Amino acid sequence: MGKSNAATNAPPQHTLWQKALTRDLEWRKDELRDVVFWIIAAFSLALGTLFGLIGLQGLPCFIAFFAGVVLVPSFYWTSFLGVDDEDFGGKMEVLGDSIGTGAAIFVLSWVGMFTLLH
């Protein structure tokens, strides 16, 4: 007739994207890496498109990309989510394979936009 006491005391379940927009929740390593992957992908696409639109070229663009791809996600998970990256093996462990994919997205969007407009 009624719900069990264990079911009523269980913490609410959040989807991954609800967790990504909520502070101070518990994170598993795979969840955090998934969210960071998509943040890096979106950041890479936006930055590559911006650099292509304004016609930037050369090494400073790569330096800005790699600085941003480390700083933006780490600022997000430490300042917004309140996650300590040391609990997950450090900053580079969380960033993991996302940097390589992000670099490919950045270069493709940058070169594509630059070629299209200039």
List keywords for this structure.
single chain, 118 residues, 6 helices, elongated, mainly alpha
Description:
This protein is mostly helical. It has one domain. It is 69% helix and 0% strand. It contains six helices and no strands.
Structure at a glance:
It is a multi-pass membrane protein. The protein is an all-alpha fold and 118 residues long.
- Portion of residues in beta strands equals under 5%
Number of strands: 0
Largest sheet: none
Q: Any low-confidence stretches, pLDDT <50, length ≥5?
A: none
Rg measurement, Å: 18 Å
Task: Name the overall outline.
Answer: elongated
- Total of domains: 1
Oligomer: single chain
The percent range for helix content is 55-70%
Subcellular location: Endoplasmic reticulum membrane
Transmembrane segments: 35-54, 61-79, 99-117
InterPro entries: EMC6-like, RCAF1
GO biological process, one term: mitochondrial respirasome assembly
